[in-house]
Design goal:
224 residues, alpha/beta, Rossmann fold, six-stranded mixed beta sheet, four-stranded antiparallel beta sheet, 7 helices, binds adenosine-5'-diphosphate, binds magnesium ion, ATP binding, nucleotide-binding
């Protein structure tokens, strides 16, 4: 499903050039759950953002479902992203001014789905992540675990075949972290492909494969 060949990413700021990714080649099969680990600053988020079409690589090729997506324009990347990729971030990235159900419905609003249909699908997915009892609460009124479950509900609502999670339990205590990991694990069992960045070996144990990065490169991979 994901095929990266010799991916490099250089960030150019005024005086400095940062080689975030030096030479990444990686394949992820459909239905696989892969964990990416490595020290802070080694390029994990940069890699995830390229896989998620938030960013283009500086060089190298990226085939997603067999289609070359390495040099697409932002508008083309957005279309593919909305159709097939769900994101989950460490900081939840919910909109503070919207309540739980409104946050969850937002992607459908962008897709032009009618109000009644949006509400029905949001209700189904809220049940799925056990957040229905907080539907009218605002993010500031929720625990970290509830915020992340809301963010996951928003991510899975359009039925993405690929979920990208960047340290999804990074801001959670172990109990809430476990709930989030169980949820991701269920999605994986239903066939969703997952690529997750984590600092936690415990979380990485849910994956089929662990990829260890260092200084912009993959140093080894471990099948679980
Ligand atoms: P990780 O997620 O593993 O902590 P990142 O992918 O965020 O690492 O960052 C890799 C390197 O690229 C770091 O040196 C970081 O400072 C740099 N970097 C990341 N994003 C940018 C950016 N937008 N502009 C400049 N440098 C960046
Ligand atoms: Mg990061």
């Amino acid at each position: 499903m994901i095929q990266l060949n010799n991916i490099k990413k250089v960030f150019q700021t005024e005086e400095v050039e940062t080689w975030a990714l030096r030479n990444i080649s990686l394949q992820v099969k459909e239905g696989e759950f892969v964990a990416i680990m490595g020290p802070s600053g080694c390029g994990k988020s940069t890699l995830l953002n390229i896989i998620g079409l938030l960013n283009n690589p500086t060089s190298g090729s990226y085939l997603l479902d067999g289609k070359d997506v390495s040099t697409l324009k932002e508008s083309e990347r957005t279309l593919i992203r909305r159709g097939m990729i769900g994101f989950v971030f460490q900081s939840f990235n919910l909109i503070d001014e919207l309540n739980v159900v409104e946050n969850i419905e937002l992607p459908l609003l962008y897709m032009g789905v009618s109000g009644k249909e949006r509400r029905k699908r949001a209700e189904d997915v809220m049940e799925r992540v056990a957040i229905s009892h907080r539907a009218k609460h605002f993010p500031s009124q929720l625990s970290g675990g509830q915020q992340q479950r809301t963010a996951i509900a928003r991510a899975i609502l359009p039925h993405p075949k690929l979920i990208l999670a960047d340290e999804p339990t990074g801001n959670l205590d172990s109990k809430n972290g476990k709930e989030v990991m169980e949820l991701l694990s269920e999605l994986h069992k239903e066939g969703t492909t997952i690529v997750m960045v984590t600092h936690s070996l415990h979380d990485a144990n849910y994956a089929d494969r662990i990829i260890n990065m260092f200084d912009g490169e993959i140093v080894n991979q471990v099948e679980m």
